[in-house]
Amino acid sequence: MAEQQLTSCFSILDKAHNWNIQDHGINAQYDLLFPKFTTFLNYSKTSHEKAFLISADLSPTLFDNTWCDISSQSVNQLFGKFTKTADGLKFTPANFNQHKRLCISSAKLLSDSKLADCLFTSLFNGIFNSSNLIDDHASAELVVAEHLQAPFATQLTIYGSNHELNELLHFYPLLNQIVDHKIHETDLAVETSEQVLGQLLSHIRLHYCPAITVKQLPYVCWALSRQVEDQNWLSLDHHYLKALFNHLNAEFELSDVEEAVKHITGFYSHAKQFNYDQLLRGAIKVDTSGQVVGQINGLTVVETDTAEFGEPSRITANVYLGDGDIGDIERKSDLGGNIHAKAMMILSSYVSRTFAQNAPMPVSANIVFEQSYHEVDGDSASLAELYALLSALAKVKVNQNVAVTGAMDQLGNVLVVGGLDLKIESFYDIAKALSPNETHTVLIPKGNLAHINLSQRVVDAIKQGTFKIVAISHVKQASDYLLNLPAEADEQDNLFDKVRDSLDRFESDVETHPPLRQKIWQLLKLSRN
């Protein structure tokens, strides 16, 4: 399959003009938008279980007003409190039995152990006893106070992250006896359809932006699709939606949504701004024009506590007389993760399969991310590392106006990677700032085509021909773009033949100047004779 230069489908917005979104105003139907949550709500209505756990960042009250959310209440507000009377302390109950279906966030329970203990004990026993509010350090007056016992026939749903729910199960063994079904799954994303879009429009109007129009919805879909890195899916992350609309006014346009996404992802964070300043001033070296042997522009994603952003990274390779070992300097210096180590082994396997099936390679090599001072992990730089190595072996210069991202397998197939939008946009920003008159290209895996949701500034540059994105499915297809010659060809210069010629020269050097261990072996053989 041939490589493909992108001329369309830069984001979900390219599909939006075919959408026929039905505007139903504010409609409380969410069965298509939140199918798992809807299934859970229907199940809870017919179930006799006392409590449910659901991995969700949305309160059930957003979908069903028969629930009462008590996440903002203290233990005294929910159950009641002791007050002084002429006859001593007396318990005054709150209206805890007013609602038969309660819900509460896991974060609230983890931060209020007194509420959690009383709630779980009451659920387990089916009875509330005010003595459960007394701790070990209570006064004697409180211990002998007049206590209340009352039925507690309430259903409770605890919602929150999967991690928080499991923490509750760990810290409160009694909860394990109350909950029959451990943790219900909810909807994190939904596949795009016109029916889903109609329900999404209603959902946004009801909970985030009452004035949103049908025209504005695709702009929001761009952000939600970018969040899950797939043009066919939309994120349903409540916190992300809330943050998005906190940055938007009622008359927002696409550019406003793009700006909001920048703020949310940390585009203006100190870490990102400082790193980019170092790249633009040359403190961190990246070449975006010219040609260099054994050097290539890889693309990475940097994650900090407050930001996530892409960044071009200079990858270099050196080769020398050796025994076929391809060294990973990141791994040797304890700066490489396990996935990156695996990727390097796959790369080495492909090189051996291609160039050393009948005899070991007489060279060794080192590959490194230059000026990288933090852990490198993942396999998305495999394709770039391969071509840095092949360039060094063949002594063919790499075009520095090209950047590469892509994993690979042992057969040379190029595999999908994550963080594509951030990677592409980072190279665009840096390359255009350093070499504004150059046409730049990014090579990506063909399997990632549906994962692109680029900002409009990059889309405009692609349409103007000053920036290109090329999708490839095999490592051989990258050679023409990176090295200006094919990987293989019958009657012309090609990369693989140059690599083989170079290996032959190294083999000749081995025969003329054998390595020390080979000399020692020859001496041992002579001494035995």
Automatic annotation (TrEMBL):
Q: Which residues form the active site?
A: 380, 423
Which GO biological-process labels does this protein carry? protein catabolic process; proteolysis
Q: Keywords of this protein's UniProt record, alphabetized?
A: Hydrolase, Protease, Serine protease
Q: Which Pfam families match?
A: Lon_C (PF05362)
Presence of the UniProt keyword Hydrolase in the record: yes
Q: Does the keyword Hydrolase apply?
A: yes
Which ranges carry the Lon proteolytic domain? 290-485
Give the family this protein belongs to, as stated in its UniProt record: Belongs to the peptidase S16 family.
Q: What is this protein called?
A: endopeptidase La
